[in-house]
Design a protein that fits this description.
About 40% of the residues lie in helices and about 20% in strands. It has about 325 residues and is an alpha/beta fold. A 5-stranded mixed beta sheet has the order 3-2-1-4-8, sandwiched between helices. Strands 11-10-9-12-13 form a 5-stranded mixed beta sheet, sandwiched between helices. Strands 5-6-7 form a 3-stranded antiparallel beta sheet. Strand 10 and strand 11 (about 150-155) form a beta hairpin. Helix 3 (about 115-125) crosses helix 10 (about 305-324) and helix 6 packs across helix 7. The longest helix has 25 residues, at about 235-255. The chain binds zinc ion (ZN). The site of zinc ion has 5 residues, from loops.
């Protein structure tokens, strides 16, 4: 039997693990709550234990494992496998995760940023399968990104590339969490949409005032999407404007990278025609003709499994280039 790869998706809330074959067959998956507050040692114990349980469930052992990949919230160093101090993993400070897990498992362990591995997951097994170059926008509280060019993740010299939410789209624009202004995610994300809605809230005539009791702080993205689908003019305007900002970001990606596919993931990705038609239209209007027509705009295939499967895919790719 050919060897298997372990994929790990470690979040502040959930820990997911998958055992996958080299030819992309998912043998088994498991998950548990991350004991994030207990610190790195306990979390590494959790990972080791779950990995061994899952292998055992398939009558496999660590001797059958080619490599393990870990998708972790940054900041981290993907080359050394050191995780610095992720905001959602308490008490983590310069943890040599790759080295520690290698000691525990005795197989090559590769650490990568969670947004990058999710992008790689869609490339390897999801909506990007068969394409050579893809861009992923993950639309949630912020806008996360990932880029695969000619079959490889674009990481940049320091491993910080593909922070697509922080592309500058407005000079002196909205203040961003990164302390800069005018970043794409201040407009093209759920948070961005809520900020847009609040701008004209006072004079708006909208069904959303009933839903929220008039308090704009009680608004959420789903409320706006549903009201927009029902034809509420204010909600439709806010939603459309948000989709247009996403389309502008997409156009910049198309002009810069000429990707085959752009995949919209995350909470907003189930927006249907209302989302995709507007994003596509804006993307085509604002990009060059040839790359604009080339780029397919798609919803994701893997949903919440993109990270765990992408971690396995990344580990395989890195094993082949770094260890073979
Ligand atoms: Zn920013």
């Amino acid at each position: 039997m050919s060897k298997v790869i372990i994929g790990v998706d470690l979040g502040g809330t959930n820990l997911k693990i998958a055992i996958v074959t080299e030819d992309k067959k998912i043998l088994v998956q498991g998950d548990c709550s991350t004991e994030a507050k207990a610190g790195p040692e306990v979390v590494m114990d959790q990972m080791e234990k779950l990995i061994k349980e899952l292998l055992q469930s398939q009558d496999l052992s660590l001797a059958n494992v080619l490599a393990a990949g870990f998708g972790i919230p940054g900041p981290l160093n993907w080359r050394t496998g050191v995780v610095y101090d992720p905001p959602n993993l308490e008490n983590w400070k310069d943890v040599p995760l790759g080295e520690e897990m290698n000691k525990r498992l005795g197989v090559p362990c590769f650490v990568d940023n969670d947004a990058n591995v999710a992008c790689y997951g869609e490339y390897w097994m999801g909506a990007g399968q068969g394409a050579k170059s893809i861009v992923v926008f993950t639309l949630g509280t912020g806008l996360g990104g990932g880029i695969v060019i000619d079959g490889e993740l674009l990481r940049g010299i320091d491993g910080t590339a593909a922070e697509l939410g922080h592309l500058k789209v407005e000079r002196n624009g909205r203040l961003c969490g990164c302390e800069s202004r005018g970043c794409l995610e201040c407009y093209a994300s759920v948070t961005g949409m809520l900020r847009t809605a609040k701008l004209d809230w006072d004079k708006a005539e909208t069904s959303l005032k009933k839903v929220t009791g008039g308090d704009p702080n009680k608004l959420n993205g789903l409320m706006i999407y549903i009201a927009a689908l029902e034809g509420d003019p204010f909600a439709l305007k806010v939603y459309t404007e948000t989709a247009e900002w996403i389309g502008l970001g997409a156009a910049s990606m198309v002009n810069a990278l000429n990707p085959e596919r752009l995949i919209l993931c995350g909470a907003m990705s189930s927006g249907g025609d209302l989302l995709y038609d507007t994003v596509r239209k804006t993307m085509l209007e604002n990009s060059f003709k040839v790359p604009g027509k080339r780029c397919q705009l798609l919803p994701p295939d893997l949903g919440n499994n993109a990270g765990v499967l992408g971690s396995a895919g990344c580990a395989l790719a890195r094993f082949q280039t770094e260890c073979a």
